[in-house]
Structures are given as structure tokens and as C-alpha cells.
Amino acid sequence: MAEKIFTKDKLAEFNGQDGHKAYVAVNGVVYDVTDIPEWHGGKHHGNLAGQDLTEALKHSPHGDKVLANLDVVGKLAE
């Protein structure tokens, strides 16, 4: 199966609202956070699903170590 490529507009559709899955992008990789309790409703400590959170993660207390536990669903188009 070919790797899914997300534009920023397409990624925005996966905001965790109204039954949509919740995806976030970090360093060009798109992750599924739908089933992560801390991301309920597509929100987590002021961050919103459906966005590129590369910069936000740089200021996170847990850093990128949490990414290893997430499912990769594709890549963010440059």
C-alpha cells in the first residue's frame, strides 16, 4: 500500500471533532492520536489535532519520546 500524503488542508480535516479521527504532524510525519485519552475531542493542553505540531512539541515537557507509541498514518506534504 502506498504511503498516504497529507496536505495541510487535508490534515486539518482530522481534527478529532464530530466523529473525525485526530491526527497530528511532527517533523513531516503524521500520527494518529484518536485513541489517546489525553487527546479526547482533538485537544491536548491547548494544542489542536489536525495541525503540524512540530514547533509546539519543542516546548513540551515530554518532548518527542511519546511519538514512539503512536501509529504513523502518513507524511505531511512539503
Automatic annotation (TrEMBL):
<protein>
    <submittedName>
        <fullName>Cytochrome B5</fullName>
    </submittedName>
</protein>
<dbReference type="InterPro" id="IPR001199">
    <property type="entry name" value="Cyt_B5-like_heme/steroid-bd"/>
</dbReference>
<dbReference type="Pfam" id="PF00173">
    <property type="entry name" value="Cyt-b5"/>
</dbReference>
<feature type="domain" description="Cytochrome b5 heme-binding">
    <location>
        <begin position="6"/>
        <end position="77"/>
    </location>
</feature>
<dbReference type="InterPro" id="IPR036400">
    <property type="entry name" value="Cyt_B5-like_heme/steroid_sf"/>
</dbReference>
